[in-house]
Design a protein that fits this description.
The chain is of the alpha/beta class and 240 residues long. It is 47% helix and 16% strand.
């Protein structure tokens, strides 16, 4: 049954991406705001599809902790859904993302409008370009979303903060808002199956700017790790 539900959802996922993406594309080339609106609509369509076909509900907690203007969002990463759902509850996000995603049909066009692409093998040059683009985004009032562990992790993987988020925190001088989640229980990695359950995003209190590297890293870990463990346990209880 899970396979059939997943198949129906994946058909829904790609057909709606094609239809919405192509219809909105001409205007999205001209306006980032229009592109954001199209992605936001698409995200709501996918949330409906997850509920309809797979029995998945979603809850967002702590929205009062999101910055009204620019900020740095440090989000756990367990699923492709982590790159889609935030458009439903963040005002003006800009994602740090892999440059390869820009080559994806339809999706790549929108990634170029709302993302800061990086070359993971680029070393110091990539870091400089990423910071420069993030400064421009912050000046425009964007919330810069970065996955502090660098790539997707399994739900029970302990939090390990990579240097990128630390450099960005030190450079931008804005509050850093941690976001814990349990999406991997329903939509693991880039796999095919979508399990029923309850997805929870929890936006945690911001970490003030100006901390030293070690203190910031510890504060971010102490925020994300226990919250993620708790959300994963809650998600598993809902699935049971």
């Amino acid at each position: 049954m899970t396979f059939v539900r997943s198949l129906l959802f994946n058909i829904w996922f790609y057909i709606t991406m094609l239809v919405i993406g192509l219809l909105a594309m001409p205007f999205s080339f001209l306006s980032r705001r229009f592109a954001l609106g199209a992605i936001r609509f698409y995200a709501h369509v996918q949330a409906f599809g997850l509920w309809l076909f797979c029995g998945v509900s979603m809850e967002v907690r702590g929205k009062e902790n999101l910055p009204k203007g620019p900020g740095l969002i440090a989000m756990k990463h367990q699923s492709t859904w982590d790159t889609i759902a935030p458009f439903m509850f963040m005002e003006n996000p800009a994602f740090i993302l892999k440059r390869e995603l820009l080559k994806a049909p339809v999706f790549g066009v929108y990634a170029s409008r709302v993302g800061i692409p990086i070359d993971r093998a680029g070393g110091a040059k990539t870091m400089k370009l990423m910071l420069a683009a993030a400064r421009i985004g912050v000046a425009a009032g964007q919330q810069i979303v970065i996955f502090p562990e660098g790539t997707r992790q399994l739900p029970d993987t302990p939090t390990e903060i990579k240097p990128g988020v630390v450099f960005m925190y030190n450079d931008l001088g804005v509050p850093c808002v941690p976001v814990a989640l349990n999406t991997g229980l329903v939509w693991q990695g880039s796999g095919f199956l979508r399990k029923s359950g309850k997805i929870i995003f929890e936006i945690l209190p911001p970490i003030e700017p100006g901390l030293k590297r070690a203190e910031f890293t510890q504060r971010l870990t102490d925020a994300l790790e226990p919250s993620t463990v708790r959300l994963v346990a809650e998600g598993r209880a809902a699935q049971a």
